[in-house]
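Question (not urgent): is this output format expected?
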Amino acid sequence: MLIKTFGSAVYGVDATTITIETNLDRGVNFHLVGLPDNAVKESQHRITAALKNNEFRWPGFKITINMAPADIRKEGSAYDLPIALGILAASEQAEMPELDRFIIMGELSLDGGVQPVNGVLPIAIQARKEGFKGMVVPAENAREAAIVDGLEVYAAEDLKSVVEHLEGSRLLEPTVVNTREEFKEHLDNPLFDFSEVKGQENIKRALEISAAGGHNVILIGPPGAGKTMLAKRMRSILPPLTLNEALETTKIHSVAGNLGGNASLIAQRPYRSPHHSISDVALVGGGGFPQPGEISLAHNGILFLDELPEFQRTVLEVMRQPMEDRKVTISRAKFTVDYPAAFMLVASMNPCPCGYYNHPNKECVCSPGLVQKYLNKISGPLLDRIDIHVEVTPVSYDEMSSKRPAEKSADIRARVVKAREIQTQRFEGEDNIYNNAQMQPRQMRAVCEVGPEGNELLRNAIDRLNLSGRAYDRILKVARTIADLEGEEKIQAAHIAEAVQYRSLDREGWMG
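Got this back:
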């Protein structure tokens, strides 16, 4: 008897439906075909024990299981449950008339319990697209799958309860999540607030500009000046996620297995802060079975690289293309996967190995050559891709002990959101461009109009600092954002002057 069940395989952040055909014939062999990996091949032993421990039997027939399409590699233990149900239906131990109307995923324990799997959200999206009635998934993944409207989602605790539900003898309650309410409930809950930061008003201004235009930023200053403290609060002034951004972000974290038990929708912008010992594969993604890296996990949020020069140079260089293209393409011999990577880079660094170069009070003990060598750990092309360079100076005692309340993140965010709304209207007809930092030369020519006074100021800055063409573009983009924050239609000379100030590492004094 031939029975079909349906599972799914995730490649990149998209899912492909897998048809699992189970056929029983004379004989006693077991054949599992369709390019399964070792984890899938081992399913026979888990399924055998699970059936026996749930009062079912392993059929005394030749069992052939084909996983189609056969040219796609099937990986992981998530196919245990659909294979087990196919065997039960084919051997007529259970009559499940609607078995082929569900996508079924789950790893089986030896006692028949159903263990959680990764990538359930993209699988649910694909199931709805292909017209399946619903999904049967592990209980810990049910809320994640239920984010997708128009799909019945049933939480599977164990094999026996799933069989009884599909037979109709004891129905499971569908898992229901009100996606919009869930999204709104967790939308505004920042852990850190800019009101907790004393002083540093010029740094807060630079970070506000960065958030308003989606610009990458690097903070340069001595130890203890507050670089990490400021970076942690950056997320609190970014515009709230839209529902589409939240779904896209949740898909990536679902594939990576980062959602945790009973999680549903990610409503806060991601904040990723990898250690400087990270490898290039862990940062951008990849591996034998490709997985998203840190830059994809920071999609729609912030990637914070603390002590930037301490990262391996090869690790930093692999970020250059994703920073421009806002995606990572991982190629293998038989397939290629894309992971989105539209993140804001926030980096910090000491100005020299001892940390006190250009310090107002403490003397630097590094030789000029050592300062130069330290700065050269970060390549010019990478620095060119960072729009804003800002110096962080230590906070004085008077500022630290001041009782005067600092501006709250909510007030800064309101100005950022207003500037972003201007940009949304500006780029309404553009494809894949949402803020000033993402502008291409064509859009820049149209919206970055500078008067004669501003042009002369920009010419002098380019000549004196010997800036590259990419740095010129960055100055114009930052100036456009400053103008948007002030509600100005045209870029003024004052906007150019402020934007030029945010190119600290291009100045001669930083070269040792």
